[in-house]
Specification:
The protein is of the alpha+beta class. Helices cover 47% and strands 16% of the residues. It contains 11 helices and 13 strands.
Amino acid sequence: MTWHHLPPDVEELCRRTRRFVREVVVDAEPAPGERLDRSTRERLQAAAKEAGVFAPHVPEEYGGQGVPIEHWSPVLQEAGYSPIGPSALNCMAPDEGNMHMLNVVATEEQKQRYLAPLAAGDIRSCFGMTEPHPGAGSDPAALRTTAERTTGGWLVNGHKRFISGAIGAGFCIVMARTEAAEGSPAGATMFLVDMTNPGIRVGEPVHTIDRYIDGGHPHVHFDDCFVPDEAVLGGAGLGFRYAQVRLGPARLTHCMRWLGLARRSLDIALDRAERRELFGSPMKSLGLAQNLIAESVIDIETSDAVITKTAALLGSDPKAGSAMSSVAKVHCSEAVFRVVDRAIQICGGDGVSTGLPLAQYLNEVRPFRIYDGSNETHKWAISRRASANRQAAVESGERYRGDAVVHGEGNI
């Protein structure tokens, strides 16, 4: 991975991050299938602060490195070279996405109460959107959790499911449906809710194949959960609009972190192909192995390119960047899975054993085709946007006749 196109300070941060992850974090990785324990995470975060690599995406005023979004990718890829690297650097989901949204949307009081301790690694957080069927999942419009105005605030009622990071979290950003009132439109509203609130209860965990998101993916229940007016994040009835600040970048940072793990997987496969001999020849000289390696290089490089384009758009044109993040999410989630799967194939029996971490990597990356919206839902949205964009072009006078572009009656 090269960094020659980066500003000097970001390039140096990439070097420090690469060195820290490979020399400190990798040695602390839990065995395949086991979870990162709290004491190890706290020790690594303290070391990351000392090394000057902690919270690369967070503004400097909150203890981060202040990297602009268009340069997040190379840093987060270096962090993602270890599955626990993002936790060590405090740039793991769902906290990373919540930090970004709080920095953009929250009031100064909310930033001091929630963003500052989250950015410092003193607490964790979760994002309460997904619900049991027939509630919100891939279709946010199906939101069933409600918040009703009451004296001095709101009463939140509902049942959330698959709320990543909720076990042990300090607060939840919960999405609830609200009615029009006092100049606010009907719609969805985001609320900042302390997990110590007596009206919130963490329920049964959802057992999944991934292991590296702190706090699991449990059910969360809201039963007449009172929150004051100052708990509203953004504006009442505008929750979906403000959530876009989080969702586009959060999809993309998943791609960045997992692409780092894909690079690690390819390195493991390359080392095996270098050492292993088959039929009297090094594996790296055999056409079948070369094809698997080449396809993985292509998947990694195309993923890197689409991430870079999307990050640049998010920095300059957030609406276009959010749309492009769907393309990046689908492509990268499938490409990363293919890279890890090919690495397992090259490593043979060892690849599916606990002697190598590849099988666990596959467990980690497979859910990404579902998390942050299923790939099928994103493809539906991508197709609709493509059709709408083409229709708008046609209505503006542009159309195709054979292989020639025609504006009105004049050929070009």
